[in-house]
Each structure stands twice: as C-alpha cells, then as structure tokens.
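Posting for a labmate who doesn't have an account.
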Amino acid sequence: MSLTYWLWLPNKLFTTSNSTVLLDANNELLAAQIAADGQWRFPQGDSIPVKFAKCITVFEDEYFYSHPGINPISILKSIKRNFGSGKIKSGGSTITMQIARMMRNHQNRNYYQKIVEILLAVRIELSYKKSSILNLYCSNAPFGSNVVGLSAASWRYYGRSPEKLSWAESALLAVLPNSPSLIYPGKNHDALIKKRNRLLKKLSDKNIIDKSTYQLSVQEPLPNKPYPIPQLASHLLMNCIAEQGGSKIYHSTIIKSLQVQANDLLNKQVQNLSANQIHNACLIVAETQTGKVLAYVGNSSSSKNEHENYVDIIKSPRSTGSILKPFLYAFMLNENKILPASFLEDVPTQIGSYGPKNFNLTYDGLVPANKAIARSLNVPAIKMLQDYSAVKFHYRLKQLGFKTFNKPTSHYGLSLILGGGEATLWDIASAYSSMGRALKNYSNTRNKYSSNNYRSLHYLNVKNRDNNAATQNTDLLNASSLWYTFSAMTELLRPQDYIGWMQFLSKNKIAWKTGTSFGFRDAWAVGLNSKYTVAVWVGNADGEGRPELTGTAAAAPLLFSVFNILPNKIWFNKPTSDVEKITVCKQSGFKASEICNDVEIKYFQKGCNKTKQCPYHKLIHLDETETYRVNSNCYSIDKMKHVPWFVVSPTQEYFFKQHSLFYKPLPNYLPECYNDKSLHQLDIIYPREGFKIYVPIDQSGARSKCIFKATHKINGVTLFWHLDGNYIGSTQKFHQLSILPDKGNHLLEITDDFGESVKCKFEVIDK
C-alpha cells in the first residue's frame, strides 16, 4: 500500500501545453505564441517574486510554510460550514491541495475528491520543496479569461514581468485565482477592488507592508482591459519553435529597446516605399565581436498580412546582386593576385553567351580595384572572378558560411559574383560579421589570429559559446586583406536622398556595401564597424521587381538610420604586423617595374611583393625630337630615344582617356614607319566578339538601327567598314555607323588607311 502511494504521484504533475515565450537579453518579453489549447500559459519560471509570494500565501494559505500539505483546522472549519448543505461550498484547501485539484482537471467537488486531494497534497509535500510547490501553483492557477499562471497574467493585465509589479498589482493578481471566472480586470470592477484592498489591509496589519505603502497602494487604479501580448520579434519566435520546438521559454540575445527602434525604422522605410509598391523589408543588428544578434526584424508588420508579412525573409534565399563583391576582393588580396588599387579592365565584355554590363551602362576602360568595389562596377568584378576562378570562389563562399550555394559551380558560372546565386540575409550578415571579428581579434603584438572567427551569428543565449582563447598563425583571410577590403568599402558614395548621412559620417565610420538583383527585385545593404554589423534587405516577398528598387535608394537609407541609433564606436585597429613595404606604380597601382617612372613606397598586405609587375608601362622608341614614334625599319637605332610610356589597348584607351587626367596618348609614328604590320592601333568597341544583339522595335513599329563603334589611336585616320564581306561605309575622326543587320550570324571587318584590319563575329536575335 505504501509503495502504491509513493508511486501514485506522476513524474510530471501538469501535462497541458504551454505558450512559447521569447525573452530578450534582460528577460523582457519580446513575443509569445498561445498554447495549443488556446490558453496564455507561460512555461514555469525559476522562482516567484517576493511580493507576489507574500500576497498569495497571505490570501490563500497563511500557514503554507508550516503545514504538511493540509491544514486540519481549516478543514474542520470548512466541514462545519458545509454541514447540512449537501455539497462542498468551502473546501479549506491549502495551496498544495489546490495543486492536486488542478492537476486532476478540477474534478467535481465532493467528499471523495476532497480526500483524494488531501492524500495527493501530502504526497506532493513529500517530494517537492515549498518554493517549488508555490511555483507550481503560481504557474498553473487560472487568472481569468484564457490567462493561466502568474507570468501570463502579469503581461496580460499589466504589460510587464511579475518582478516589476507593485504591491497593489501583486495583490490584485493574488486574489484572481480564487474566483477567476467571476472576477478579473474588466469584469466586476467594484468587487475586485474591494477584494484587493482587503488583502492589502491584511498585509499592512501583518506589517508586511508599511502604512504609507498601504495608503498609496489602495489608491492605485485597476487595469481596464488586458494588454496584448508583445509581438516584437514574432519571426524570431517562429524560428525558435521550428528549430527547437514549442512550449518553452527562449532566452535570446536581443535588446528589447533596440528591437523596438529597429521595428519602427523598418516600418517607416517600408511606408515611404509603399507608393512604389514596395512592401517588405528585414534587418539584423549584431555585435561584430561576439556574433550576438541584438535586433531581428524578419519582415515589415501588417495587421492583415496582405503582403506575406508572416514570411521571415531573413532566412529566405534571395538573389545576391553585388553584395558578394568585397569577399572576392578580399580573397584576391589575400592570395596576392592584386594590390588594393591595381588597375582592372572595364570595357564592354562578352564571355561566351554571357555579356555583363555595369549598372550605369558606362565604362572607364581601366579602374583601380578599390574604386571598382566602392562603385560596385560589374565588369571589373567579372574580370577579377575570371582571374581568381569561379570554382575556387564558390568554395571560399562555403568556407565563409554560405549554405545556399549548393549547386555545382557550372550552374552559376561567372554570374555568381553579380547575383547568379541566392543567399540569405542571415548568411550575408554572418559572413561580414565574421570578417570583422577576424580583424578585431587579430593581435598586432603577437602577430596571431584567434580561432573560430568564421561562424554564424546566434540569437539565443548559450554559455561558453565564444571560444577565441586559442591562437593560430593563419586564418581564412589575413588581417591586412580584411583591413584594405573594409577601407575600400568606406569609400562608397552615400545615398543622396538620405539627408542624415552627412551628419552620420562625422560621427561614425563604417564599411558598407549595397547590392541590387537583376530585375530590381532585391535591394541589399550591409555595414559594419568594430562594434556592430547591420544587414538590410528591401523588396517584395513575392519577388515582384519595382523601378528604383536598388540597394542605394531603398536599403542604404535604412542601414544608416539604424547605425544612427547605435552608440558611436572607433574604427578597427590597423594590422601593422601584417603588412610589408612595396614600391608601387602610382599610375597603374601595380608593383612597379623597372621602367615605371612615377613610383611611391607603400605598405600593403603581407606577401604583396609576390604580385605581378605593372603590365602597362613599356619602353617606346621616339625620334631625336621625342615627337614621333619610330622603329628600326625606318629609323637609326643610334638616334632613338627610349622612353617609358603608359600603354593601353585601343579599346581601353577609348574609355580611359575620357576619365583620366594623367593619360597621354602614344605619339604618332613617323609617316615612313606606318608600314609596321605588328602595330595594334585599331579596335572594335561595339559589337565585341561573340555579342548577341537584340534589335528592338521603335514606336512606329520598325526595327531600330544599331550604332556600331570603333576606335583608332591616330586621329583623323579613315576606317573602311565591311559587313559579311560587303562594303557598308567609311568614317573619319568619329568612328560610328548606324546599321540594321538581319537576324542571324554576321562578320564585321574594319580596315584603316595603313592596312591594319580587325574582325568580330556577332549574332542578331529577334527576342
């Protein structure tokens, strides 16, 4: 019998489902999901606040801490009151007996059930401490309507946690479980306030509260109606449930005040963009050093969810646009393929069937790599990826933590760097934060790197998550490569329509990058300094593109708005132990060759002396007057002057001379030297080899003409144009022709006065 009694108590007294609760770093409520049975029932906490513990024991069970689960005197009094009534009106139940009743789903009141409750109460007292018993009661007692438990009641009726309740508020909640269906805030106001005040008087009489506290407490008003449960991070709550299940309390790294501000800023930006039918946005704010997420806004808010606002876009793969370019630049520096300002080619380009274009449809001919990153130029990025290898870059992205690039490299090709693949804002923010962490953790004094720098962000508080004590000699990216990458990212032009950025620049230096996907479907912006990493996406959840939906116009203003509410922090420390001295060509940005005539000594990433020498400076041969170029076929070698000269291809020159102040075209050859067949002075600008050309229909319904362009290094030369072997015209000075080619494959050939000829094959398509 004794064994049966001992085994009678289940391991878990309450098996009902709980709400899922998300708390911030300071245990403030961020969001909650109602329990499966439609009750607001928060999971049991660690303890009960002192004020409420005093109130509930004085009101419900004065001898709670001294009785063994039952109070014989109270039971005898209740039997006397119930005698002759035929049913139990007053049960004399202790808090422990009420737990026994609740765990048995409130069986009908009769003497048999009361005996069962008494036996269970004693059994509970044998297994649980008094503090645990009180916690069980407070976590499962009904508080009116669909509110169960102290925590849920505190948030529903007062909009804050139980620890922050006053004596009057604690007393009010303490009287609710006595008759929760009859008296609760918003119902039977007068009876409720009398009940509360009687308890306060009792607390005063027992010297639990002083007279002044009592007098002030009875004057406190009652709440008129329940507060809505906060839903400040509902998307993050859904993530927690999906990853680890419901009916739990999740302690997050979020800072509630920052989450509120981030929500407001994001919704304000979406409201501004809604006139252009742009309805969704998301953002992350994280600590660069630790990877802790401080704000997580998964989507814009909408009471009707009419724009798929329930979708957590932070975890949704979207086309990356240009947001990956700094990663490629960093790896190129890291492997000493370029110096920070090495020239990259920027001319119309066709690679197989792929014809990348710059966003503004213009070209520089040649552009420093750091300026190409700052201006987010597409063609130089493609040239870098060609040099680096798409296969290797694809592998590096996975090392950085990107999980969505799971198809073979051939699926993405070179378009990988321009948005040919999809990534999540979560992975993008994690990768940039990892880079910032790696630079911040680098030790200049020891020339060492911390371990475990490259990892995902996290939003749940887990002890001992960070483990950077171990040091190592190398890392995925060296510190100087990161430093020069972030330096390039500080030079981006700020969004002109964001009036606060000038003020921001004077306060806070950040490395930042924007991205815009093809078809204006996704606008990205990410920025970081030594303290914070912020990542933003703006667009439409259904993928609809909109004009002006660009990273600069739509996402960057929100990025800067968020940084403006963050505390000001200093910039990263320069990794002085991870650089070395190099002589650089001031014109090309490459390591200076022996014939570079304008050089400077700089410090760049360690290993930079392994980079290739300047390919643009070449010795040219001039006559005695240094006016004309000559060669050995037409001029005496003894009389030649050998001069270093910055030499580029005709196509590069065509664009470069429009932007460069230092560029000097090559001198013309002496007339008798023009018969040198090795000269390369003529080139076709458009179309390039392999181009596929679509000829649109104009407003009249006729097919538009194509403008074909060529360039020659000698001014005034005559060019003769042939299409598919047929002469179609000649040009002087301005080498352009309007042509209407038929659908299909064609061969364009151009010849100059001196017999130099160039050809290119292209195709005209009808759609």
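Reply:
Got it, the structure tokens are right above this. The mean pLDDT is 90.
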